[in-house]
Amino acid sequence: MSNEIRAAREARGWTSDQLNHELCRAAAELKIRIARPTSLRILISRWENGASSPDERYQRLLGRAFGLPLQALGFVDEGQAKAGVALPSAVQVRGTDVSGAMLDYFRQQHGQHARMDNVAGPGFVLGTVATQVEQLRRLAQQSPAEIVQVTARFAELAGWLCQDSGDHAGALRYTDESIDLAESAGDVALAAYNTMRKSNVLTSMREDQRAAVTARRAATMAEREAPDLLPVCLRQVAVSEAHLRREGPGREALDRALSLVDGGAGGHPYSAYCTTTYLEMEGALCSLVLGNPGAAVDACQRALDGWPVGLNRDQALCLTRLAAAHLEQHDLDEACRAALRAVELVAQAPSARTLHMLRVIGRRVMPLKDAKAVRELREALATVA
């Protein structure tokens, strides 16, 4: 339960003080008396450290503040507890036969979770996915390859959701597990994809050398066993090389990925998101890392001009990269304009990566706080970051 509260808070990019504020606001809305903010700050710390558990009153307020059901925060609904209904994570499924209908159910759930993440960010699905990973682990002990493969996909998704919530250690644990499961299931394409995802987590952790080695391994696996996954693996090669300041190899990898996608390659179900617009956005990141803001602006503009409808989370991230690139070019008005658009989207689909970028931008424009564009941006940032 402590992990769920912290994960929900971090998924929204809230500090403990912001959660304190949201709880006070929820209490006012529901007309519930609670501790003063100073005492509430201590309670939040104890809940997140596992030293104590919220009572029914605070459980209700936490659910209201986060906009999540009690089960997603690790709480047992009082009515269910009296009726003897267990949480999903406690359901014993070890002896259940794995039917085709059950496999279809989990596959459909996986797709729905991925779509919800794109629209609303990781906070709305992380708790549910983590619970389903526990259920699937028990089912996978029976060893049919199909359920092991599904478990691998859920573990990879859980890793991604942790990463986008800012929990890199959790992301690496889930992603390592997903690689092992994919190999156990004999799904070489999924093993290659999950290896690429591990490289991306390592990049987030700034373990740049390991990330580059792992990215190259994934690209080699994809080229040999799953060519449709090669573009997304090459994209990660480009990102990892940029972080090592190796512009030539990174540019070569990204150009090859773009050429493959433009030529009709790619399109694997595991990497359906790896479109030309996505690659342009990732190319912008490489340019920013390498200190080339002009190229980053151009790449972001090309990406945003053709951005697919419904992918709010990544669109917000792209806009923050555009804003950062404009700042590097000392174009304050354009930077604030892009950041304001990102704020509107991140309110719909919170992402730790996007919120981090917005905070960085907010700090960088602080010396110019008297400018009208900066004042408007700071007011907007106060609502989300």
TrEMBL record:
Top-level taxon of the source organism: Bacteria
HTH cro/C1-type domain: residues covered: 44-73
InterPro entries xref list: Cro/C1-type_HTH, Lambda_DNA-bd_dom_sf, TPR-like_helical_dom_sf
Name of the protein: Sporulation-associated protein
Gene3D superfamilies: lambda repressor-like DNA-binding domains, Tetratricopeptide repeat domain
Single GO MF descriptor: DNA binding
